[in-house]
Write a structure and sequence with these properties.
Blueprint (H helix, E strand, L loop, with lengths): L5 H10 L28 E4 L5 H10 L3 E3 L12 E2 L2 E4 L5 E2 L2 H10 L4 E4 L13 H18 L4 E4 L7 H18 L7 E5 L34 H17 L7 E6 L8 H17 L17 E4 L22 H12 L3
Parallel strand pairs: 1-2, 1-10, 2-3, 4-6, 6-7, 7-8, 8-9, 9-10
Antiparallel strand pairs: 4-5
Helix pairs in contact: 1-6, 4-5, 7-8
Length: 338
């Protein structure tokens, strides 16, 4: 049984990560910046589930400089920057491949390719560390054949916790052992939800491939706790620095509220607090040097609109009107410097 008693344990875990898994050492990469926002508005992104012409209009109306749809290709043409994603499987394969992937690469030259979506969660990509390492290597090789300027991000874990940092440690160690080099990650992505980690129960579950009964035991009322959100971001940047990844961008590709117990006003308040934090958090010891030591270079709220998780939707499904959270997002975007 593994148990981590809150963020005191997480801080201790971050401090001891060097050399933890398979002899991993500090990694030295090129200092060339993979993603440096020119202004705060370039940090704003959105998750778009059903991409239609209406969604394109809403992206521009709400304010977003980039978006993702958890797929390799955009479904419509838009001026908003698209971040493509490949999905990975438990056996280390990925999709799409071949000519379908070639077409997608040609549509997004120089893009940052995200390899996997929540590979630590069984209900999503559910890839154990070995599978994620193999898929990242093989997908990168295939994409680079068609676009030598492409860059790569490892798929985001569902939240920051000692268990999930351990999952990433193991993945990095396997990659190095298998391919004789450090994992060539240009951009780091994470999701930052506040959910309990427990086996065979509600929440985010135990990372795929790890043996544990439970980890962080948040309760439902913690789901919108800004202090846990902030602590997770800071802990992940600390983990990155300890691993030699401080000089890489960090993108929060999903955050928001999923549970239906929160009111529209509570959701809007959480959005305002998290976005304000993401736009202001800097650390001279942990932040990204190319970006004035900001901790996070971009963030995508989940989601533009979603019939399954309506709590955090920015647009009402039936009327296409902005929710309270959508109105606050638009205000924050418009207030941000250009």
């Amino acid at each position: 049984m593994i148990k981590f008693a809150g963020f005191a344990a997480l801080t201790a875990f971050v401090l001891m990560v060097v050399g933890f898994c398979n002899g991993i050492t500090l990694i030295s990469f090129s200092s060339e910046a993979a993603f440096v926002p020119k202004n705060h508005r370039e940090r704003f992104g959105l998750g778009v589930i059903y991409q239609t012409v209406e969604d394109d209009r809403l992206l521009k109306h709400l304010g977003a400089s980039w978006y993702l749809n958890w797929a390799a290709e955009p479904e419509i043409h838009t001026e908003v920057r698209f971040w493509p994603m490949l999905r990975v499987r438990q056996d280390g394969t990925y999709h799409p491949t071949g000519q379908v992937l070639k077409r997608a690469v040609e549509k997004s030259p120089g893009a940052v390719w995200i390899i996997g979506n929540e590979p630590d969660i069984a209900e999503q990509d559910g890839a154990p560390p070995l599978a994620l390492a193999i898929a990242f290597h093989d997908a990168r090789e295939e994409i680079l054949r068609w676009d030598s300027t492409a860059q790569f991000a490892i798929g985001a874990v569902g939240m920051v916790s000692p268990l999930r940092l351990s999952y990433l440690d193991i993945t990095l160690g396997i990659y190095r052992q298998r391919y004789g080099r450090d994992m060539p990650i240009d951009v780091w992505t994470i999701h930052q939800y506040i959910l309990p980690e427990q086996k065979n129960a509600w929440g985010i579950g135990i990372p795929t491939g790890l043996e544990a009964d439970y980890g962080e035991m948040y309760v439902a009322k913690n789901h919108n706790a800004i202090r846990y959100f902030q602590q997770g971001i800071e802990a992940f940047r600390g983990w990155m620095a300890a691993r030699g990844f401080r000089g890489k961008p960090l993108i929060v590709t999903e955050f928001g509220l999923l549970l239906p117990s929160f009111t529209a006003a509570e959701t809007a308040a959480y959005l305002e607090k998290t976005v304000s934090y993401l736009l202001s958090a800097q650390d001279n010891n942990l932040g990204y040097p190319a970006d004035k030591n900001y901790l996070v270079q971009g963030f995508a709220w989940f989601a533009l609109r979603d019939p399954l998780f309506e709590t955090g939707t920015l647009v009402q499904l039936s009327t296409s009107r902005l929710t309270l959270a959508g109105q606050r997002w638009r205000e924050l975007y418009n207030e941000a410097d250009e």
